[in-house]
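Entry: Ribulose-phosphate 3-epimerase
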Amino acid sequence: APQAKIGPSILNADLANLAAESQKLLDNGADYLHLDVMDGNFVPNLTFGHPMVKCLRNHIKNAYFETHMMVNSPEQWIEPMADAGVNLYTFHIEPVKDVCNVCRLVQESGMKVGLAIKPATKVEELARYMEVADVVLVMTVEPGFGGQSFMADMMPKVEWLRCNYPNIDIEVDGGVGPKTIECCAKSGANMIVSGTAVVGAPDQRQAITQMREVVQR
Ligand code: DX5
Ligand code: ZN
């Protein structure tokens, strides 16, 4: 089964000190960084784009960067994000007409590609793309904000994916932390995004280690 990886989301970190906050998470054992890119249209919030990611990459040379593209036209940002040094480009399938084409463009740019679905999107919508996707992301909150409550009723989607695609990387994102990691792990998720629960943890290393251990069990 795919390896357990903990990828803190920096959305609720001090974004004016993004490099230091990110380095601290990596020093505390984070396997990758989950960078939430929001366009103010696909979701009612606005964060940052490729200029910020490019600067972050100048400070943090080797870490694995995932951008979670909560945007209406993900194909527009593929080249800028690849140029900024992104490793995994995860976009929402809801606003995209030709998902396979966007996947191909992402992979041709040298990045891995992830497909994300909102809570209201049926998991079967992903079935036709499973040959091309490197990662699938099941949102466990309505995208747009950190610090929301975990939606346990999303777990059947994770179970369905793990049962049908035993070797794919399945990521969960939203309200995940030491208190909710158990059911994510049991359902079959192996890539764990956690924002508030890790960034705000009194002991980040302990929070990251504990969640990884639960997933690896
Ligand atoms: C929400 C973002 C998530 C969020 C996770 O739209 O995609 O990555 O920042 O943060 P928590 O773990 O606080 O829900
Ligand atoms: Zn996210």
